[in-house]
Amino acid sequence: MTKITLPEKRQVGHLTLLRQGRKISLNEYNALTIDEQLSMVHNTKGKEKYDLLINSKYVEKIVPQLHPQELYLTVNSLGTEYSLELLSLASAKQITLLLDLDCWDGDTLSPILSLAWLEILLGTGEEKVCELVRELEPEILTLFLKKHLIITRGLEAYDDDDAENAKRLESLYDVQYASENAAKVIGAILKIWQDREQENYLLIMEMIRSENLSVLEEEVYLIRNNRLLDLGIVPTSEARAIYSYINPDTFKPGGKPDFRLEAEDVQLPAALIACAEPQNLLAEIIAGGVDHETGCELLFLANRRMSADNIDLADDQDVAETFQSTYDILNLALEFLAGKDRETAKQIFHNTYLLQLFQLGHSLLKRCQQQAQDIASGRLYPYFDYHDQLFIDSLLQNPAVLSLNEAAEQPAGLQKITTREQLEQAQSKLKQMSALEALFTSVLPFDLPAHEYEGGDHPTLSGVFLTAVANQLLERGFSPVPLVKDDLPLLRDKTFTDGTLSESFKENIHSSMAQYSVECRFFAEFCLDSWEQIFTSLNEASTEATFHGELLVTIK
């Protein structure tokens, strides 16, 4: 007996997600309620979704309940071979969205794609073809057909005494097709309508004759855009407003009225909002589930982002990544406003437009990126040590990424900035780098050397500072004049005791840094670590040091 995988239910984040579980028989599967089966369908993709649908005794009721975008993703994932059965059960609203998303090239209906879709719809069977002419907007069908044919003669030419009518057989119109394939596909569709839907057939044919193609195309395009707008799918130029910068320091949450009007007549996009998982505070806020209005608002927001970024709405992975990134940015905004206070965050989430919360989260990241860009464009950027340059470069990625140094409480690596803690880490590091800029441009009593110099790696800030310290120890003044190799053993002897860095040297470095910049204590710690690694690697048999990282030390 055929078996179906029954996912196990597990509460994760905003929805009761379904995880892979045991195999059940068709009888067990069909013993579930329609709502239970629909929940399973929402939480699967591709062929697995198809298997659940096609084996359900409620399939004729379930398919029309799928959100049109869910069906669109499924059809594109399955391909035509598996899609015909589902399309034969799809509603006119679902079919309309498929045509809206797949058949337009800018503001022009694609002749190739429109004919391809007419052929697909023909493959769903005569009953569906008849249903489409009854339920789809006649302007859509008229435009799709008018792209591929011309009617040269119609009802007014019909005359019982006309000898030519003997050649017309039962045809009421003379039609010239743009291609053989158009004649084959559209001819078959028209024959079905003429035989079974005569009134609608005559309406479509007369509209084809009377409508101006360019005017009709413009009208259908505008109506199509309005339908997409209702789902948050807008032209890219308009959608880019989602990334408008707002000042995080003056942002005021609240102000959202009831969202039911916007969500009216829109199916709950359960499968779409479940394709990614909110985390942290956002997960806690909506752990109990997502109501219809919130689900629709989340979909509109994600669709607007995908429009802005030209994301392929037919790509499961791209759609899932967009939803995940959207959840992450919303979480960042909520934590910025509410900290860890769940009740405050919940109130903000439900009383503030999600678009505005997204813009706040995006602006927080954008502010960090702008600070990073200012540093990257500055004169000191080439001198920053590798880990600092990596930090700046990572922040400037899209999306921004936080580069973390290894520490006792965390491993080194790259993390998306999705929490207030990570945002504060980024801001703290940016503040440190700004302090370094001030230290080396206006506080220290020497100028930076040229970035290109003979005999060594590119100089870094730690290398410049350590070289100046070394010269001071050798009583040559506090200046980054390159050392010679014979200086190294003497420097090691002056700064190490019993093989370890002496406490007096550490205290001296911290004391000196405190005189120059209290905010740069972190830099003193880094320089001490670098000094220790440099001279620990130096041995009696070698006249050169093995350096850790990039240092401004020229050894001759």
The rounded Rg comes to 34 Å
Overall number of structural domains:
4
Output the strand order for the largest sheet.
1-4
The rounded distance between the terminal residues' Cα atoms is 82 Å
Measured as a percent range, the helix fraction is 55-70%
Helical segment tally? 28
Taken as a percent bin, the fraction of beta residues is 5-15%
Shape annotation: elongated
Please sum up the structure shown:
The chain has helices spanning 26-29, 34-42, 46-54, 59-62, 68-78, 80-87, 92-102, 111-122, 126-135, 138-146, 165-168, 180-196, 198-210, 213-229, 236-239, 260-263, 270-273, 280-285, 292-308, 316-338, 342-351, 354-376, 386-395, 420-443, 461-473, 487-495, 503-516, 521-536, and strands at 3-5, 8-12, 15-19, 23-25, 104-105, 108-109, 149-153, 174-177, 401-404, 413-416, 496-497, 500-501. With 556 residues, the protein is mainly α.
Can you describe this structure?
With 556 residues, the protein is mostly helical. It has four domains: 3-229, no CATH class; 238-363, no CATH class; 384-439, no CATH class; 444-556, no CATH class. Helix content is 57%, strand content 7%. The protein contains 28 helices and twelve strands. It has helices at residues 26-29, 34-42, 46-54, 59-62, 68-78, 80-87, 92-102, 111-122, 126-135, 138-146, 165-168, 180-196, 198-210, 213-229, 236-239, 260-263, 270-273, 280-285, 292-308, 316-338, 342-351, 354-376, 386-395, 420-443, 461-473, 487-495, 503-516, 521-536, and strands spanning 3-5, 8-12, 15-19, 23-25, 104-105, 108-109, 149-153, 174-177, 401-404, 413-416, 496-497, 500-501. The protein has a two-stranded antiparallel sheet with strand order 1-4. A two-stranded antiparallel ribbon has the order 2-3. Helix 10 (138-146) packs across helix 14, helix 12 crosses helix 13 (198-210) and helix 22 packs antiparallel against helix 23. It is elongated, with a radius of gyration of 34 Å.
